[in-house]
Design brief:
The protein has 11 helices and 14 strands. About 40% of the residues lie in helices and about 20% in strands. By secondary structure, it is an alpha/beta fold. It has a domain of about 210 residues: NAD(P)-binding Rossmann-like Domain (Rossmann fold, 3-Layer(aba) Sandwich), CATH 3.40.50.720. Helix 1 crosses helix 8. The chain binds nicotinamide-adenine-dinucleotide (NAD) and uridine-5'-diphosphate. Uridine-5'-diphosphate (UDP) binds next to helix 7 and strand 8.
Amino acid sequence: MAILVTGGAGYIGSHTVVELLNAEQQVIVLDNLSNANVNALKRIENITNKTCVFYQGSVLNKALLHKIFTDHQIESVIHFAGLKAVGESVNKPLQYYETNVTGTIILCQVMAEHGVKQLVFSSSATVYGVPDSLPIRENFTTGATNPYGQSKLMVEQLLTDLHIADKQWNIAVLRYFNPVGAHESGLIGEDPSDTPNNLMPYICQVAVGKLPELQIFGNDYLTPDGTGVRDYIHVVDLAQGHLKALQKLSTRPGIVTYNLGTGRGYSVIEIIKAFEQASGKQIPYRFSARRDGDLAAYFADSSLAYEELNWQPLHSLESMVESSWLWQSKNPNGYND
Ligand code: NAD
Ligand code: UDP
């Protein structure tokens, strides 16, 4: 029996494929490479000494999905494939809803037709919108402020309705906080195709001289040093969370939602200092205006995942910044090196 990983060549997907292969699972990857490089899959083979089957194509391609489910005995699906840039989603809402929502509908239709009803879905902490208090628990009110977040909420709703209609569906919705870091080999990592929007890849590119300086968006928040606080989680811990969620699906039927974060927030300044320490590089920065839509602080209560999945993040902040730097310094041009 195999596990289908959509978006498996991407940042979180590639790290999860490594953990699945290391756990002796058979893996099929479907990715249209719109935001990934096929070299990631070759590097996965180097890391694990194992291979996965790769299909280049879209989750919107129903015929291709049918072929994959016909050709392989698939028991469950981890669905990472999607578009994830918040700003871009505001300018391209149709593309975001089509890929993220229609893509999931088509995937679930084909799964149902082939009798495969175990699904792990990549959601995001962004579905909490502006939380009433911190840390954020799974039962907090949700709300979206942009098409990306809305698309994640729509998928969460459709998966809930799917389970109401057919109790055979077992679904884990994982709400990620801020994934950072890279595999300890330095062979796979985050490889943004454009100028990064997120803090860690931006710092990495400043460190290798591709970008001149970091702008810190706001230093007047009500946080200890005035800069934004986020819950950064090592991508390998996140990947492990998917394996734990898959195990859980076989024993706890239904639809379940888990936060995956560390429960500990770090400020922008703390991240810069930790990165400088790990890399020996100085990160030039200047303070600029707050970024639209940003909140002062955002971090998870992940105790539910700890209690029910027996999952907890094992990597420290030091390990997050060290591995980010190892990946970036070994591959200044990402997978094109
Ligand atoms: P990523 O862009 O690296 O990975 C997504 C992968 O999906 C890419 O490899 C891309 O080529 C592929 N893809 C896109 N459209 C596709 C399509 N139509 N058919 C097949 N493949 C397609 O992003 P990531 O950071 O690895 O994110 C994975 C998932 O996690 C996404 O659903 C994202 O929304 C979610 N998520 C990410 C973060 C984050 O900060 N990275 C946070 C919360 C949630
Ligand atoms: N940030 C920053 N400069 C950047 C990118 C991000 O100061 O170039 C800050 C941002 O304001 C937030 C934190 O870093 O406080 C994390 O931002 P990111 O975009 O990585 O994650 P998100 O805001 O989506 O949680």
